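Researcher: I'd like a structural prediction for the single chain below. Treat it as a standalone chain; there are no partners to consider.
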Amino acid sequence: MSKPAVAVVTDSTADLSPELASERGITVVPLTVSLDGRSYLDGVEITAAEFYDLLARSGGMATTSQPSPGRLAEVYERLLGDHSHVISLHISSKLSGTYAAAARAAEMVGKRRIRVVDTGQASMPLALLVLAASGMAAEGDGADVILERLRPIQDAMRVYFMVGTLEYLRRGGRIGRASALLGSVLQIKPVLTIADGQVAPLERVRTQERALSRVIELAGQGEGRICALVGHAAAKEPARRIADALDPVAETMILAPLGPVVGAHAGPGTVGVGCYPAELFPLGLRRLSSIGAR
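Model: Treating it as a single chain, here is the predicted structure.
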């Protein structure tokens, strides 16, 4: 089978497993996570399971950094050797400098054949956009058509999640509008979302159980089937509950661990779901077995 004319690139904050990325012809450029004086390429030199174990044993806070423009430029040049265009979909520019690095790389290589997209998302919804783009490329769509078909999916994308503690978001500077929740005298478990490219509070509830129930309720709202990806940071059981509850309405259901970079900022105990109406572009994936950390 010949290669699609359009190559799809993303970064490791999409938290796609290497197997799924390879199967779908997606090139993943890793960010870097640093902990206890050592740096690791996200998902390449350290897995999710290894990271959460190390984080628990270290008692410290991990830091992260985006790939260099040079590294991204090398990827683009290689892919343009046998593709007409590259579409590079990245984490929100309000959460990371990765998009800026990718835009600079495109200028270095020749931006006429490279389309760099600030998705305004991260992790679960970013992965769904990347999977949709790769599916469209496999169908033979050109770069302009893929970007046009992605817009309604971006507009309809929903993401709901809860964290074990807001402390990781606060320390990492990724707390966004959820900073309004800090210092509250109430013991609350907020349901969070990503709005305008940053973390934002959606609802305040009193217990973790209620927060989990609301994530399920919110994701299951609406008519028709959904493409969904459930992600978790060392929180397998709550993730399984979300997936099992949504599976009857899911055309696609993927369970996956949140990778080291996303986990460094969200923290252990984070669990959530990204989803969009399957009628916009069915992915045809059932990956319930991918609950295990890679």
